[in-house]
Structure prediction request, 113 residues.
Amino acid sequence: MARQKQWLPTSRAPRPAPADEVEKRAIIAACESFIRDVLKPRFLPEIRPTEWNYVVDIHGIWAAGRYRFMQRCRSGMEHNRGEEFDVPFARIDRMGNPELAELYAPKVSRWLS
Prediction:
């Protein structure tokens, strides 16, 4: 006789305590410096319009205890030319003081730690 499948409860790892205001500002400042000094010069030295979607800016936001790196894209398609939208491409999860250990890349669906 075959065994019946059964759902088992799982436990989640506890979330670290939220960052205090000083730590949050330090993380934001470091990430904005990284965007300004590394990402923009390397990946966005100039804006090159195309007939498809193209990147016009790289920026970041703090949301839900995480810092997300975002691309600001503009549409070049005929039916919605000029419309802009944000696309997240990575995030930093605060894993506890003082570590910023996890970088998640949603396009490849994996952690880059």
The beta strands are 53-63, 66-75, 84-93, 102-105, 110-111. The chain has one domain: 21-111. Helices lie at 21-43.
